[in-house]
Amino acid sequence: MIFKGEKDEIILENNVVSENNKKVKKFGVLLCADESEYVKEKYGGYFGVFVRMLSEEGEKWDLFRVILNEFPSDEEVEFYDGFVITGSCSDAHSNDFWICKLVSFLHKLDFLKKKVLGICFGHQILARSLGGKTGRATSGWDIGLRTIHFSSSSNKILSTFKIPSTLNIIECHQDVVLEVPAKVEVIGRSNKTTIEMFKYGDHMMGIQGHPEYNIDILLHLLDRLLLKHLIGVKYADELRTKFMDACEPDKEAWRKLCVNFIKGRL
Fold it and tell me: Per the database record, which ranges form the Glutamine amidotransferase domain (predicted)?
């Protein structure tokens, strides 16, 4: 990964060129969450979690705290190859200033055909920006390991990269995408949520679960949800007991799927 200040980097009008004059791919993480000190110290924040999962040699990754109204300028956006939208404790259907600004920003990325990968809240806000509807799930919270079943239309992609037709993923949400417009293709479902994944054209994809999470991050998140009174003590204790012996999700398969999507190889 390349950071500003390294000796083999030349910066030219926000574009990044390596010492052999080859354009360096640039990606941005749109942070929509308040991060805990635990995740910052152990994983380098959610930015570190995503970069660790998605980055490849010679790329440049930047962080934009959109929850604090930090967005790329119109001039900067042109030089990015793609963006990842993180999860959040906020509601994708709310009209907070930064959320409405994020919806407008996603309209711009759609117009420019930039690669966008939305995770959990990111999945929901991306669907909203495309004309979909989001809201509370009638079945309540979904926290834990869930099996995603891919649509038959995804078979070619899955077989190309040797990805199974079902994958386990960590879920932690109470909101869902309720409806998507006809232009959006639903490509994944579970027995709890009908719109677990969607794809729009070749440049936008949403995943309701958390391919970036491990069990440790989920257990820590339970404590945060409990402190915020978003879940009850009994429910949290039941989940902790269940997760202590739970197997890890199919992280490598999810990594492969997400990397190949955002790098334009699907």
Answer: 66-214
Q: Rounded CA gap, 124 and 131, in Å?
A: 11
Taking the whole predicted model, whether its pTM rises above 0.85 is answered as yes
- 208 three-class SS: coil
Per-residue pLDDT, 6: 34
**3-class secondary structure, 96:** coil
Give the integer Cα–Cα distance in Å for 86 and 75.
Answer: 23
The contacts of residue 17 (CB under 8 Å, 6+ apart) are 9, 10, 11, 23, 24
Helix (H, G, I), strand (E, B) or coil at 18: strand
Q: How far is Cα 29 from Cα 178, in angstroms, rounded to an integer?
A: 25
Coil, helix or strand at residue 53: helix
pLDDT in tens, 2-33: 434 333 333 334 555 554 556 889 999 999 99
Q: Which of 263, 258, 55, 264 is nearest to 163 (CA)?
A: 258
Q: What residue ranges in the chain does DSSP mark as E strands?
A: 9-12, 15-18, 26-30, 60-64, 82-85, 115-119, 133-136, 142-150, 166-173, 175-179, 185-189, 197-200, 204-207
Contact, 127 vs 177, CB < 8 A?
yes
Extract the tokens encoding 212. Answer: 């970036």
Q: How many angstroms separate the CA atoms of 45 and 50, rounded?
A: 9
How far is 154 from 131, CA to CA, in rounded Å? 23
Structure tokens of 226? 């409990």
Q: What's the rounded Cα separation, in Å, for the pair 40 and 19?
A: 32
Lowest-pLDDT choice from 179-183, 220-224, 240-244: 240-244
Catalytic residues: 120, 210, 212
What pLDDT does 162 receive?
87
**Torsion sign across C-alpha atoms 142, 143, 146, 149:** positive
